[in-house]
TrEMBL record:
Protein name: Flagellar biosynthesis protein FlgA
InterPro entries assigned: SAF (IPR013974), SAF_UxaA/GarD (IPR044144)
Keyword line: Cell projection, Cilium, Flagellum, Lyase
Residue ranges annotated for the SAF domain, each copy included: 23-101
Highest taxon of source: Bacteria
GO molecular function: lyase activity
Pfam families: SAF
Length: 105
């Protein structure tokens, strides 16, 4: 397990950010978020926190599932529909073009 969360002056630096409590994906905001990390996250809309066990290496800027997602579900980021899940994704797995597609085309 690796952890990049830093405690300092009473605040932890998040691994992940979600924008809305309705989001079912969050974005990695650190370099080198490794598989098997208990990641610390913040929901920016209300400053609430969460933890999720990350199952894959996640590049910075990429998404992590916050819940188990089934094929046909809608991926929600920023409280908005960002696409259709095309392959089951377990909580903590990498969410990207291999398992989510836009609904625009």
């Amino acid at each position: 397990m690796s952890s990049h969360a830093a405690a300092g002056e009473g605040r932890r630096k998040p691994h992940l950010l979600a924008h809305s409590p309705d989001d079912n994906v969050a974005v990695a905001v650190i370099e080198g978020l490794s598989a098997d990390t208990d990641a610390f996250g913040v929901i920016t809309e209300n400053d609430s926190t969460f933890e999720v066990h990350v199952r894959h290496d996640i590049p910075i800027g990429h998404k992590v599932a916050l819940t188990d997602l089934k094929a046909g579900d809608t991926a929600i980021k920023y409280g908005q529909d960002i696409g259709k899940v095309i392959k089951d994704v377990a909580k903590g797995e990498h969410v990207h073009v291999h398992n989510v597609k836009t609904k625009r085309w």
